[in-house]
Specification:
- Helix content is about 40%, strand content about 15%.
- The protein is an alpha/beta fold.
- It has 5 domains: about 180 residues, no CATH class; about 160 residues, P-loop containing nucleotide triphosphate hydrolases (Rossmann fold), CATH 3.40.50.300; about 160 residues, no CATH class; about 40 residues; about 140 residues, 3-Layer(aba) Sandwich (Rossmann fold).
- The strands form 6 sheets. A 6-stranded mixed β-sheet has the order 5-6-4-3-7-8, with helices on both faces. Strands 11-10-14-15-9-16 form a 6-stranded parallel β-sheet, sandwiched between helices.
- Helix 7 crosses helix 8, helix 26 packs antiparallel against helix 30 and helix 27 packs across helix 29.
- The N terminus is likely disordered.
């Protein structure tokens, strides 16, 4: 049977045993052609709207505002439409009641009066049967079809008959659905994660669409798809709660820059671009943590007790006078009190003694405000005390009567004291304005508030910030606060200037009106009739058209609508304090695996992470199926952890390759690794269609990179290269066709477990000395 286009797939056998004729195939191709024609039309419309808005000659504020709004909206629409270019439609649902819907990565409607859907967004409720329906629970479906496309051409169709009578008659229910999943799992890796909208499994779909509004914890071992689930949950939430999340944004936190690069194309491929991706070391605006802590330092910095330590550091910067002024107390039996001498240009020496400073400090602390916001209260009390001290001196009656200065005189003295540079210098010495960077830098240079052995661990020896420093900076920012009164005063002065200018324009407009027809009733409206100076000035302000993600990245106090944290078990207690501030509503999705905890500062348990914030008011779901790692490799990796934790149970692998891991001992490590790369890589890697990772301890990277042509060692590896060199923590969340693990005994058990479970096809192990327990038993 030959009928032209697509004849390689002219007949397709489906799970029910029913044959799909080339007519079915052509019908689907015709639909895809019509769908892409509609996509192209919508794209052309959006591009035209953007170009028309940009060419608008209007220069007024209102015209600029309208232009910017149109450009932002249409550019966003254009990004979503461009996301549909590849794999626009991947499924079809045929219901028993005669309804028929195609499913795709974005929704597209026809240009008719009813706006009839051409293809439904995979996140729509009516699309759920595509992921959940089974022969025993068909959800009203008669048939579910998977469409595979390459570009705009249909290349394969796979059908499942979900009618129980048909299933019982044929005995092949569901076979081809597994084939679609397994084909996706077996595909060559590219160095970038792809979306899984075509193959979302039922347990994953329930998590993606979970209605839980608090903290949702997704726990799963290697290869269970927890990262993909988290990203698709972000896409679903943006679809289901568009208005809220478009304003507040979604934050996704990943363990390292390589990981963020790896997942960076998933959400754009689903039409979502308004998400902020960040590592923990990038969550303090203006600071990017590129340094590395010495062993043990991150654990000290990450303890929750560091919040109290920093609070003590701040309180110690709220000082009292320590020195007794020279010459004070002479010819007197009274013990002089420590005081600051303030040399005022007009009034000589003023004394700010310890009692005055102590009272001012107590009053300021009693406000409960952060350090910088409480400082004006301290300054006010000091100025008030000095004013009365000076008034007592200047207004003293030589005959012992009441003070000769009136209230107005004392008020004037107060103004002069308040504007004295010398007085403000004294206030700064006792209650200085502080920045988070200044405070934490000083603390790390001299961490004397800690026990001596811990102080030596965290003492700063370079100017580079480390990821463990970022939560300290954030905590310091909370303790210090930001006094923006001067900034607000400057902004108000600028606003008043704009209003004055606008009033001048209106006055000029009114003065130039024609009174040629004074005897006639005016039938026209002048500018001052429809707008006042204040509203006119407001129209000259520049609007902020940045996306929520862009504004959030620059604002430490931004409260996100939802926060997703991958490898959540790795974050310290101090890092969690930072993240909880970013999400006061506690609308969060946390994904991770306590068995893979490798960071010395990591919390390692959900209870330890969440107890201080939500108690037991969170939902925990577990993913138990490993879609990535073949059974042969998973067996080896599990044995390594069981040697340390006998009761450990790994996730179940859905497939087996028949290839057992190869373990090789050598005296020439670099040469053996190079040879293993040449021999172990499957054909797809050698031909550039897949990816291979060499995972080795950091000290070996330079020598290994020298032995591997084209391979570079670095903090941010290029995962799109055919062969990459990583350490285990850089490999978290990533996957490769082939993995070579070097010197397994030099890795921590949890890190080794991560390294061994990155491969989707083959695994090799190269070592010079002993093997760790569990791995030895597998040889």
């Amino acid at each position: 049977m030959t009928t032209g286009r697509g004849e390689a797939l002219r007949t397709h056998r489906i799970g029910s045993g029913v044959e799909l004729s080339s007519v079915e195939f052509r019908n689907e191709q015709q639909f895809i052609d019509e769908l892409y024609a509609r996509l192209d039309h919508l794209r052309d419309q959006a591009e035209h709207s953007v170009q028309q808005a940009l060419s608008d000659a209007g220069s007024g504020f209102q015209a600029r505002l309208e232009r910017d709004v149109v450009v932002a909206e249409q550019s966003g629409l254009l990004s979503a439409l461009n996301a549909g270019e590849n794999g626009l439609c991947f499924g079809r649902l045929e219901f028993s009641d005669g309804q028929d819907h195609h499913i795709g990565r974005i929704g597209i409607r026809q240009d008719d009066a009813d706006r009839t859907p051409l293809v439904l967004d995979w996140r729509a409720e009516v699309a759920r049967p595509f992921y959940l329906a089974t022969g025993h629970f068909p959800m009203g479906l008669r048939r579910r079809r998977h469409l595979t496309t390459r570009g705009r051409e249909v290349t394969a169709l796979h059908d499942e008959i979900l009618d129980l009578a048909d299933t019982e008659r044929t005995g092949h229910e569901g076979a081809d659905a597994d084939a679609v999943l397994l084909a996706a799992l077996d595909a060559a890796r590219t160095g970038r994660m792809h979306d899984i909208v075509q193959t979302i499994q039922a347990e994953q779909d329930r998590i993606i669409r979970s209605p839980h509004r608090g903290v949702l914890v997704v726990e799963g071992g290697p290869g269970t798809g927890k990262t993909a689930v988290a990203l698709h949950r972000a896409a679903y939430l943006l679809y289901a709660h568009r208005e809220l999340l478009a304003k507040r944004g979604v934050l996704i936190v990943g363990p390292n820059p390589a990981f963020l690069g790896y997942i960076g194309e998933v959400l754009p491929s689903l039409g979502e671009t308004g998400v902020l991706l960040s590592t923990p070391g990038e969550l303090f605006p203006g600071i990017r943590a590129t340094g590395t802590d010495r062993p043990g330092a991150a654990a000290v910095k990450g303890r929750a007790e560091m919040a109290d330590v920093l609070a003590h550091v701040v309180r110690d910067r709220q000082a009292l006078p320590e020195n007794v002024p020279a010459g004070s107390g002479e010819d007197s039996a009274v013990v002089p009190e420590p005081a600051l001498e303030i040399d005022h240009d007009d009034y000589g020496t003023l004394l700010l003694d310890r009692t005055m400073a102590h009272e001012a400090r107590d009053r300021a602390r009693a406000t409960g405000l952060p350090h910088n916001l409480a400082r004006p209260y301290f300054a006010f009390r000091v100025i008030d005390s000095l004013t009365h001290q000076l008034a007592d001196r200047l207004g003293a009656d030589p005959y012992g009567g009441p003070n000769l200065l009136g209230a107005d005189d004392i008020a004037q003295l107060g103004k002069e004291i308040a504007t004295s540079a010398e007085v403000h210098a004294a206030i700064d010495s006792l209650w200085p304005p502080l920045t988070p960077v200044q405070l934490v830098s000083d603390f790390l240079a001299d961490p004397s508030h800690l026990p001596s052995h811990e102080a030596e661990l965290i003492r700063r020896t370079t100017q580079d910030w480390t990821p463990a420093d970022i939560p300290l900076l954030d905590e310091a920012a909370e303790l210090l606060g930001f006094d923006d009164s001067a900034q607000r005063a400057a902004e108000e002065r600028e606003r008043q200037q704009r209003i004055a200018y606008a009033q001048g324009v209106l006055d000029l407009s009114q003065g130039s009106e024609s009174y040629e027809f004074e005897d006639m009733e005016n039938e026209f409206l002048a500018a001052h009739d429809i707008i006042d100076a204040e509203r006119m000035a407001e129209r000259q302000e520049e609007a902020d058209h940045r996306s929520a993600a862009e504004r959030a990245a620059a604002d430490r106090t931004w409260a996100f609508g939802h926060v997703i944290v991958d490898e959540a078990q790795e974050l310290s207690e101090m890092a969690w304090r930072l993240l909880m501030r970013r999400c006061p509503t506690r609308s969060m999705t946390l994904v991770g695996d306590p068995a893979q905890t490798g960071d010395e500062a990591g919390c390692g348990s959900w209870k330890r992470i969440l107890d201080p914030y939500v108690g037991d008011r969170y939902e925990l779901v577990r993913l138990g199926v490993n879609y990535r790692t073949p059974a042969e490799i998973m067996e080896l990796a599990a044995a390594v952890l069981r040697a340390r934790h006998p009761g450990f149970e790994p996730p179940s692998s859905v497939r087996s390759t028949g290839r057992r891991p190869r373990v090789r001992q050598t005296d020439d490590l670099a040469g053996a690794v190079a040879e293993a790369v040449r021999q172990s890589a499957p054909a797809r890697v050698r031909e550039g269609g897949g990816r291979l990772a060499v995972i080795a301890p950091r000290p070996l990277h330079e020598v290994l990179a020298a032995a591997l042509p084209g391979v570079r060692a670095g903090e941010e590896p290029d995962l799109t290269r055919t062969v990459v060199l990583l350490e285990p923590r850089q490999a978290k969340g990533l996957e490769f066709d082939t993995v070579i693990v070097v010197e397994p005994a030099d890795h921590e058990p949890s890190d080794l477990y991560v390294a061994l479970t990155r491969a989707t096809q083959t695994l090799g192990v190269v070592h010079t000395g002993r093997l760790p327990k569990g791995l030895t038993e597998q040889q």
